[in-house]
Specification:
This protein is of the alpha+beta class and about 160 residues long. It has one domain. It is built from five helices and four strands, in the order H-E-E-H-H-H-E-E-H. It has a four-stranded antiparallel beta sheet. The termini are far apart. It comes from Winogradskyella damuponensis. This is Lipoprotein.
Amino acid sequence: MKNIYLLSILVTILVTSCRSGLQSSELPELSVNPYSTSQLIEHDTQGIVTLLGSSDEFRVKQDAIDNAQKKAIRHLLYIGFPGTDMKNPMIKKGKRVETENKAFFDQFYKSGYKQYITSNQVEYFDCEDATKQCITAASTFKLNYNLLRRDLERNKILNKIGF
């Protein structure tokens, strides 16, 4: 009788540990794509630029789109696109400007940046690891550069041109 009791405890422990192992493997950790770069596709109209951003790995398509767009906008703001007419960053102070203007950038990255996007085309890609349930997105979108610059100047993040 004692052996049956010990055997049932052992089986319960094994089943519980296997079940928890299955739950953790159902939600694998997602990774940051080290090769996700942004590109300036074209600057064909005064004040409008077409950007391409690629996202990290996400479980929800909308999160992947948002990440791709934010990465491309950050590239425009802080790095610029060498070899193009947008070779200089818009914000020369660097990312420290985000801590100095925290309220503005919290709202900007939450949803405010979307008001500057005029069109958007998205391609989705599954993760390379077939066991992961995730997706990455490549978003090609038009950004109203003049309106963004005006709002950054109005919020005293950028100096007006010539001042």
